[in-house]
Every structure is written in structure tokens, then in C-alpha cells.
Amino acid sequence: MILPRIRASLLALLLILPAAVPAESIARTWNEELLAAVRLSFPDPPVHARNLFHVSVAIYDAWAAYDPTAVGYFHRETAPAADVAAARHEAISYAAYRVLTHRYTTRRHPITPDANALAAQLNFDTQFTGLGYSIANTSTAGESPAAVGNRVAETLINFTVNDGSNEVGGYKDGTYAPVNDPLILEFLGTTMNDPNRWQPLEFVKQFSQTGKPLDFTIQKFIGSHWGEVWPFALSRELGQTVYHDPGLPPQLEGVGDAEFKAGNVDVIRFSSLLDPSLAPMVDCSPATIGNNTVGTNDGTGYAMNPVTNSPYAANMVNQADFGRILAEYWADGPESETPPGHWNVLANEVADTPGFERRFEGAGPLLDELEWDVKVYFLLNASVHDVAVAIWGCKRAYDFVRPISSVRYMGGLGQSSDPTQPSFHSEGLPLVLDLIEVITAATTQVGGRHRHLGLGAIGKIAIRTWTGEPENPATEFGGVDWILAEEWLPYQRDTFVTPAFAGYISGHSAFSRAAAEILAHMTGSEFFPGGLGTHDIAAGALAFELGPSAPLQLQWATYYDAADQAGISRLYGGIHVPVDDGPSRIVGSKCGIDAWNLSLRYFAGSILNEKPQLTITPLPNFQFRLDWPQHRGLFYKVQRGTDLQTFTDEHPFQRATDEQNSHTIGLPFPSPDQEFYRVLQSE
């Protein structure tokens, strides 16, 4: 059984277990500090995915400095130590502390409100000095573990400052402008210049997903430039702009028009299931849910728990409670560690499971807690970092509309099912009995299903859906009823409504699938320890409204099942349409597997044997093209000189990745007679 920490939005029912939790490794200590800092910060998933990865790299590179086999990622050195365990403890602490301080304070990068940045820094300082280390010791000279840790941090900070994230500019992007004017939430409906493209929302007062007030009322596309941030294991061909490109999403009045409309119907249908007073009891155990093919919801569960060799017991849950809990639990709401960090929490809980054995790929000798944690964090956060690069690159490239805009836009135009019937418009919502209907004079009469909408609504489109956040969420729930399609809201807080970036494709789905791939590979099994992962929810623990009506338990047989549930949760929450979810799971799977395969070469040290060969091709007008084979993993620079001994870094590549494996140069330099070139690893 997985025992999660109490989350602010969903209070867990904790069991008291007699077995002791293993002592916390120093890597775990700093991972917990990192997660605490994320919870205090503005909820920017790409930024936090990058920070999760880079802090994990700092921890790994400091650990690897004292390992005879493993190779560091950003920083590589072999450090001497009489007491390796003590040296690692110190070097990891200095490396992690320096990177955390650099990334989560307002001194350089204002990604957190001032008060929260100060709180984060106080936490870092308290932890660091509590371990017996000196904040004033910033020296990078010598062989002390502190110097090693400081060197690791210095290398990482300097090397990544120009990685495409615009860290020094507060991670902002001035190259993106939405094609649609804002959807003003104070009014009904919306107008759109292009109904296939993302539309920012305009609030009277806007709050972040973590419940913090923001100083602007119109959304700005978060991470619109993130597709060009340096990845870890991603690769793309020359000319490609999107990693693992899923292709164009369905277009309203274009290719995929029927799928576009059906996806919005699906979102409305999910929303119609969120009334606990009307919902049936359903079995939400692994006996009936999960075991999907990647990218689909085609699974029908498992006949047997493979660990216990017994059938999974039924888990009867109110269907509306189940949907609402999924929407809130996986939303990573108030004070959360955001979706990438959520899977760090789950990974820690897996390791804390009584009886869990830390065996790499589920085989071989037991690893100590430190080595296990160091490698899990490196693998997991490399994968979610790559997800952020791939997914946000896709979001920018296709700039796809969110349901809040498309449902309101189509519903405001009319119905698209029957041109012979009233309120027809080719871009309207399809009619579905008992779900999407045209309001008529008859249906507004006493006893009619649309009577409360009034005579002025005749001819408009009504949808049967969740009615919105109640006035007092602590004592009331919105329930389901007929409302105008133009006033539809997703199952979210009124002050949040929808994330501030395009929908296609889903970050939640990809983050979760990538992390699931890592945990399945690392543990040697796709199944949670004991064949069952659980999360207990207390009655009344919901944040958006009253509920759930009774205690319930989320259950997953495998890491993949949990990841798929994260994707489905966004449909219940009205954040995504199905086409955002399925392809994203596939992209996440690729990111996870690629990160796993590349990381193994660092762990084994074999990455250093992979050296590219440079070829030079003469071109017209005294130009030459330099080419080297596609290679992912190491960092390279190209040097040129007048002879085989004298080379300069006048034109080094800060990062030569496999989408940048060609470079054209021209003469003269430094003489028209001869030039020499070489490609080598960046130090």
C-alpha cells in the first residue's frame, strides 16, 4: 500500500504501520526541500520540471564524483575521499543548496512572490546549517567535498543559463501573441478570430492554480518558448520544430471537424456525471479499470493481482465522487508540487513501502538508500524535463483551443446536427438527447426541463452539466442541471478555470506516463508494490465544493494505470478534450523510455566511449560544411586552428545536439591556405 503525505487539497486517511520507514538519504532530504520550494512558487510546470531535473543532476553529479564507474552529466570529475559516505553527504548538500538558492529566490529570478521566496530561502538555510555546513564556504578550490559540491553547482548554473529558458529574463517570452482576444469571464459566451486556436481568459480577479492572487487579469501563455529549451534525451531531425510530433489536432470546419465536435461533447458528458445525489455506485478497482494500451482507454482491468495471486476486491464508489476526486487529486491544486513534482512524491512513497527492496530493475543486489534515490531522481526528472520541452513545443506549434472557449463558442452559434431544425450553424454543438438540446417554447414552460432558463433563452443551446462552483464550497455542491452552453465552466475554481497555455497536448498525461515508465523500469515491474497502489480520501475533503459524500479510495494496479487516470482526470475537470490526452500519453512514454536508455549510459560510464567523427565538405565561395553523426547525450564544441596543435574556441558550440549537427564556415581564418577542425566534448 502506498501511503501519500497529507495534501492540502485532499486529506488522506493514514494507516499506522508497525514497520519503520528507512532512514532518509541526503538526496531525499534535498528532494523534499525542492518539492517544498515548488509548493511555494508560481505554478509553472515547465520551469519546475527544469528545476527538478537540474537539482537532481547536481545531486547525481556530486554523487558520481565519488563513484568509480558512473559519469557526471554537467560536471565530471573524480574526487578523492577517505570516507566516501561522508564526502558524498557533504558534496551533495553543497551542490543542491547552491542550485536551489540560485533557482528559488528573487535575487536573480523572480519566479516566486517575495514572501514565499524568503520562506524558501530560510528553509534551505535552516536545512543546510542544520546539517553542519557553512553558507559562507563558497570556495571551488581544492579537493574538499564542499569544493566539489560548489564546483558541481557552478558548472551547472553557468552551463544552463543560456539553455533557451530565458532564466535571466524571468522565463518570459516576447515572441508569442494570441490570435484571439480574451474570453471575458464576466460575460456569457465568447467571440474568436480562430476557433481552433488558444484564447486567453480575462478575470475580474485572477488567482494561480495554487490559490495565490496574481497582479494581472488577462492570462499570458506560460512557457510558449519552452520547445527550444535544451532537452536531455530528445532528438529531432533538421527542420523539425516539435519533438515526437503528434500531428495537427482536429480542426473545426476543417480536417477532423467531426472529431473536434465529438471531443467537446465528451467533455460536456464528463461534466454531466458530477452530481453525487444522482450518480450510481460503480466499481473503481483494478478488477474493472486499467490495463490500457498506451494512448487509449481500452482496458478492462485485471483478472488477478499478480503479486498475491488473488482477484482484486471490488471498490464501490459513487461515480460523481470518483470523477470529482480525480479532477482535484490529479490537478495538483493549492500548495502542490505541480504535476512533475507529484511523481517525485509518488516515487518516494514507493520507496517507503514496507518490505520494498531497492534492487535496480528489480534484480541484483540491494542498493543503499542514497544510490537508489540519486538514480531515481535523475531518471524521473530527466524524463519530466524532456516532457516539458516536447509538450510545450507542441502547445506553441499548434496553439490549440481549450474546452472553455470551444464549448462556449460553438454553443453560442447553435446546433450543427440538423440544418432543417432551428438554431442550425455548421460550427455549432452537435445535439445529444438529454445532454445538448435546443431550448424551445415548450421546454421553458412550467414542468419543462429548461423552464428555469426563461423565455429569453428560446432558440439557444442548453447543456446538462455541472453548474459551477457554489457560493459556499464548504457546505454546498454545484450539482448537475441544464445551463446555457454560453455560460459553461469546467470543474475548477472560478478564480482559475483553465491553465494559461494551449491545450494540445496534455502535460498531465505526458508527465505521468513518462514517470510511470521510469518507475516501471527502475523497480523491474509495472505493478505497484504488492500489486496495488492506493490513496485514501476522507469524506468532505474536496476543495472546489462539498464532498466526497463518503470516504473513498483511489486504486491502481500499475504505474501506467495511475498515469492514465491522471489523463482522464483532465476530462472530468473540463481542462482537456480526449485528443489532448491519448497522443500525449504516447509522447510521454517515448520521453520516459529515451531518458531511461540514455541515463543507463551515464550510470555505466559507457557514454564517454561515444565520440563523433567530424567530416568537412567543401562548398562554393570558399565555404565548408562541418558535419558529425547524430548523437544524443554529451555536449560538444567545434574548434578550428592553423595547425594540429593550435586550436581556438573562437567559434565554439555551447551545445551541439543532434538537431544542430551541421555548421557552415567560411574563409579566411586565420589564413586562406589551410584550416584544421576538431570536435570534442565540452568540459
Mean pLDDT: 88
Share of residues in strands: 5-15%
DSSP, total strands: 15
What's the arrangement of strands in the largest beta sheet?
A: 5-6-7
C-alpha Rg (nearest Å): 27 Å
Poorly predicted tracts of residues:
1-22, 107-112, 650-659, 668-672
Structural class: alpha+beta
> Strand-and-helix sequence, N→C?
HHHHHEEHEEHHHHEEEHEEHHEEEEEE
Distance between the termini: 45 Å
Question: What portion of residues is helical?
Answer: 25-40%
Number of helices: 13
Descriptors:
three-stranded antiparallel β-sheet; 683 residues; 13 helices; disordered N terminus; alpha+beta
Structure description:
The longest helix has 30 residues, at 369-398. The protein starts with 25 loop residues before the first helix and ends with a strand. The chain has a three-stranded antiparallel beta sheet. The protein has a three-stranded antiparallel beta sheet with strand order 10-11-14, with no helix packed on it. A three-stranded antiparallel beta sheet has the order 13-12-15, with no helix packed on it. Helices cover 33% and strands 9% of the residues. The protein is globular, with a radius of gyration of 27 Å. It is an alpha+beta fold and 683 residues long. The chain is built from 13 helices and 15 strands. Residues 1-22, 107-112, 650-659 and 668-672 have low confidence and may be disordered. Strand 12 and strand 13 (647-648) form a beta hairpin.
List the helices and strands and how they pair.
Layout (H helix, E strand, L loop, with lengths): L25 H15 L4 H20 L19 H20 L10 H17 L14 H16 L22 E2 L16 E2 L54 H15 L9 E3 L32 E3 H11 L8 H15 L16 H30 L4 H11 L22 E3 L22 E6 L13 E5 L22 H17 L9 E5 L14 E5 L2 H14 L5 H27 L10 E5 L3 E5 L8 E6 L5 E2 L13 E5 L9 E6 L2
Parallel strand pairs: 1-2
Antiparallel strand pairs: 3-4, 5-6, 6-7, 8-9, 10-11, 11-14, 12-13, 12-15
Helix pairs in contact: 1-2, 1-3, 1-4, 1-8, 1-9, 2-3, 2-5, 2-8, 2-9, 3-4, 3-5, 7-12, 8-9, 8-11, 9-11, 9-13, 11-12, 11-13, 12-13
